[in-house]
Amino acid sequence: ETVAYDAESFQEEPLADAAGSGLYHHRAIVPARSLPNQENKTEHKVISSIRTFAAIAYNEVLLNSKRVAPYAMALLCGGNALLWWGWGPATGHGWAVNADFFIAGVLPVYSFMTLPLFTALFMADPVIRDFRAGIDPLIFSKPVSRAAYLLGKFFGNFFVLACCQSAFVVTWFVLQAVPKQGVITQQWKVIPYIKHFLVFVVISHLGLAAFYFAVGALTRNAKIVYGLGVAFYPLYIAYQKVLLSSLPWRWKLALDPLVMNRGGKFHAIPDEVMNHLVVVYEPDLIVNRAVMILMAAICLTILYVRFAMAERPGKIETFSVLNLSTAAEGVYYPESSPVTRLDEFEKPDYKATALFPHVPVPEVTRVNEGIRANVSKLIAALGVEFRLLRAERSLIILMPLAIFLSILDLAFYQVVPEVSYSATYASGTAKGLLLFLVGMTVFYTGEAMHRDREARIEPVLWAAPAPNNVLLLSKFLATLLLTLSLIVLVGLIAIVIQIIRGHTPIEVQPFLITYSVILLPSLISLTAISIALNVFLRNKYLVYMVSIGTGAGLFYLYSIGHNHWLYNPLLYQLWNYAELTGAGNNQARIFMQRLYCLGIATACLSLAHVFFQRKSTTGLITAGRLNGNGWSLLITIASVAIAVIAGSLIVT
């Protein structure tokens, strides 16, 4: 007899029924290690989740590597490091640029300047992109858990953000080998750059990134996150002044999320001593960093609990009751009824032509060109933009937040009148609105310019018989009117607060003068420049990076005294209400600078029309007459001439 064995685990035993007959049956004994017990299932599930998380995070890194925005941010961070290295405070005080204390002192300031905006920009829409592209059903049809999906999205994008932020310390590290007059450099160092960057920058923005990511994933609205990024600065400054300033020194250090209060009075310490100081992390700093990590974990946990792997359903329609009615009344004619012939009907005594005379119908032609037709198209396109803005959920959060922060000082603190109470209220609200108006103009213009492409309806709109100026001006006017509505609301609320606090008399003229001379031209120029940047660069995130970097650089120049009239379209620190009314010496210069800004705005809009990606016409002349491009080029030349003349008058 032959007995075949499949493995060592197979054993044979005689049949009970045929003992002694030489018959055997085989019993397979499965090894214990191959049993699908609960422990092996859990281990396999954990390994699968880790692999899924790593794949999603790696995919996010690959996607970001193909975008322009991360490289633009890294370039801006590297340029910022170059300014701190060659023209920062170290050159004037004899400090070494690679000293331990200098690295630890500069990084919190670097973390505060522009990086919260960059964090909001990167972490706003990693999840939104999947739902916007319509690939969320495909992703969630795979065995992907919520934790793996959300953590992969978060850490993949945060890794890219940290790499972009590290361009600052990488540039500093490389510049150790570059000699420059006035710049003191010690021996080569590596560890302080890595250590202080992780502690003072990465952990600080880990909590912010988790908060922005959670808000974007739960609301499915990137503009809410952008608004929160803009609101971070006034909220953080108010938090410092109202809460932290009244606390003891240790509590102030422990509760500062960006550790901006750790700086001391270094100017009284000799340079040689400062250059050899070694930074030691004290317990309050360790607690602070642990709290930031805990806040990030709390935000991600809330997101995990509240996140749904599908679009939220709209409003469910109520059930309607269907009543079955009885048959309608009718007249029954039997089959035997005689059929009436047509000639047996009685004819009327009057003629139909007497009641309905023949009226000649005028000839109708469809007019699709001309100023009147284009104005009608512009009004229709503007109505569409307004309907889209009305459905925008971000305005529900951003508008009240902007109004509250703009009137905070006037509502709760002492108001000292300069010329009058109304003039002080108008000037205070104008200065408080400045940052929000800049942020809303940049972000809402970018969203409006790229909304059609992201929704995949751009070919449909471009096929419509509407000129390019209608498409561009509708978005320009919609953004401009949105910001103007915010200005009007803030002005009305400021007047109400003035009445409540008894700061009378109430004057409307200061509000009209301040808003029309300071805010309105600034908004027109900013919106036009943003339209032109979106047309030229054709990438929303790249436009955001360029706008944030340029704005941060200009505000840095303004803060150190370089606020010339020609590159200060907001008139930052260059005006007061007395000068607007003629009491000062700069009234003529202010009005000339406003004309200069309007000339630049007109030139930007005209150039955006010429270089708009949709080419409805070619050349400058059609049928012997100037077409849209020709008129735009002519307006550009005239606007540049006006700006040059106004600028020369400002300088002289």
Structure description:
- It is a single chain.
- The chain is an all-alpha fold and 652 residues long.
- The chain folds into three domains: 1-33, no CATH class; 38-306, no CATH class; 371-651, no CATH class.
- 64% of the residues lie in helices and 2% in strands.
- The protein is built from 26 helices and four strands.
- It has helices at 38-65, 69-87, 89-93, 100-112, 115-123, 126-133, 136-140, 146-165, 167-175, 191-219, 222-242, 249-254, 271-275, 283-306, 352-355, 371-390, 394-406, 408-412, 421-454, 458-462, 468-500, 509-537, 540-559, 577-580, 587-610, 628-651; strands at residues 10-14, 24-28, 621-622, 625-626.
- The strands form two sheets. Strands 1-2 form a two-stranded antiparallel ribbon. Strands 3-4 form a two-stranded antiparallel ribbon.
- A hairpin with a 2-residue loop joins β3 and β4 (625-626).
- α5 packs antiparallel against α11, α8 (146-165) packs across α10 and α22 crosses α23.
- The longest helix is centred in the C-terminal third of the chain and has 34 residues, at 421-454.
- The protein is globular.
- It starts with 9 loop residues before the first strand and ends with a helix.
- The model is unreliable at 1-35 and 341-345 (pLDDT under 50).
